[in-house]
Amino acid sequence: QEDGSKIQLTVIGIDPTRQSFVGPAVTDVKTLKLSNNALLDRLSRGLKPQQLDSVSPDNPMVIEINGQQTSITGTISVGGGFTADGYMVVSDQTFLRLFPARSSGAPNHILLNIENGEDPDEISDRIRKSLAAESIIVRSFAKAIEDENTYQTTRRPTGLIFGVGVVIGTLVGLVIVYQILSTDVADHLSEYATFKAMGYSQGFFRSIVLEEAVILAFVGFIPGLLATIGIYSVMAEATALPIAMSPGRAAMVLVGTVLSCTISGFLAMRKLANADPADLF
Fold first, then answer.
1. Termini Cα distance of the chain
2. How far is residue 53 from each of residues 12, 31, 36, 56, measured CA to CA in Å?
3. pLDDT tens-digit readout, 31-44
4. Which of 27, 42, 150, 199 is the most exposed place for a label (fewest CB within 10 A)?
5. How far is CA 211 from CA 92, 98, 214, 216, in A?
6. Would you say the pTM of this structure is higher than 0.70?
7. What is the DSSP letter of 30?
8. Residues 6 or more apart whose Cβ sits within 8 Å of residue 141
């Protein structure tokens, strides 16, 4: 950049005559037919979006990539990830000039369009069997997204660290809720003993403790959700990562919270279940 700073970009080389490969989100593809033209991700980390406000085919911004001057003639909006600060799209010929070690006969991705009504997974299986090559991966677009999510969450260090954090957080939550409910049961043993002597069943006491556990789950979930939405917003602004709290994820966390509190409730009522009313007075 002009101030001497550097950003890491994932560069994608495409055939500029194949608009269907990139979809409608990537515009100005025709400008890539000229040598060393590129479309730069305006949401890249370390890059101010206003730097690209005036960029156009008639007013390109010149940057240096791998020692070669490249003209930015348009923009895309993707955002950074865990492997790079942003993305840049160039033509296949420009890509080979920027990365001479790459070969035009070894593309990373080949897009196949299928007719409406065809099953992408079935087509993928047929192509995979006909090629019978371990070095070639054939999959649908949805399967590619699923594989990438699995890779990022189970094999990348960042995903593993977050996974361990979730496990530790769940265990800490279980212990804290157990301590709260256990203390509450101990403080009201005389009341429980009175009801037990009157003939109330164990199910009655279980329902009381579980009701407290569910109340604790919601009391903790609501402020936690609000705090998380705020933290997500700050992190998304600071890192340019596509971070957001979706309704599905929030519902999953709520179910997990209620389940964890319920387990703690069952553990907290063990002392009461084994107690004799005569011993409690």
1. 78
2. 22, 17, 20, 9
3. 888 888 999 888 88
4. 199
5. 63, 64, 5, 9
6. no
7. G
8. 120
